[in-house]
Design a protein that fits this description.
By secondary structure, the chain is mainly β. The protein has 2 domains: 85 residues, Chitinase A, domain 3, CATH 3.10.50.40; 54 residues, Thrombin, subunit H (Beta Barrel), CATH 2.40.10. 7% of the residues lie in helices and 35% in strands. It is built from 2 helices and 8 strands. The longest helix has 7 residues.
Length: 177
């Protein structure tokens, strides 16, 4: 079966920056709804017409993926507003920012703690891959018809490059898928 609108693809990939540094690897196939909300539009367009067993190598520019880096989404917040056990790499919803944080910080944004100093904390509301051109090597493991439920939901329950927010045993684990 060829990939077209409203089908499900199972993909594995290796993601690198343009210098060849590995950013993410997905070894086990994950299903994504083509024609829904799971994939970046540039990726959906590139997959059209391919079938299981195909491999693609794409370069995706920042404006096609996670946007340019926006320094207006960097905020210095007073350290005393945060818990003592705060760690670099922690992610938090803007709606969960402590009372007293900058009122101009968008509350519908996901922030990453990038630095912790004695007097302040640096929060970054950019996607971790913002401003980075990425090279992605994709393997199409399987293609199938989407179910009515998947089409109705607009996804297979997995998003493309979503930051894992739930805490894990390893506080430095910030999986991009």
């Amino acid at each position: 079966m060829e990939i077209n609108r409203q089908c499900v693809v199972a993909l594995t990939w290796t993601l690198k920056d343009t210098l060849g540094e590995e950013l993410d690897v997905l070894d086990e196939p994950v299903e994504f709804l083509v024609g829904g909300n799971d994939l970046l539009p540039v990726l959906e367009a590139a997959l059209q017409g391919y079938s299981a067993g195909s491999n693609l190598l794409l370069q995706i520019e920042p404006e096609q993926a996670f946007g340019d880096f926006n320094d207006q989404l960097l905020f210095l917040e007073p350290r005393h507003l945060f818990p003592a056990d705060l760690q670099t790499g922690l992610t938090m919803e803007g709606s969960a920012l402590p009372e007293g944080c900058n009122p101009n910080a968008p509350r519908d944004t996901l922030y990453t703690v990038t630095d912790i100093y004695p007097d302040h904390v640096v929060l970054d509301g950019n996607h971790p891959l913002a401003g980075i051109a990425i090279r992605i090597s994709i393997q199409i493991e399987a293609v199938r018809e989407a179910t009515e439920e998947e089409v109705g939901r607009g996804n297979c329950g997995t998003g493309f490059f979503k930051l894992q927010i739930a805490p894990t045993d390893d506080p430095t684990d910030h999986t991009l898928h």
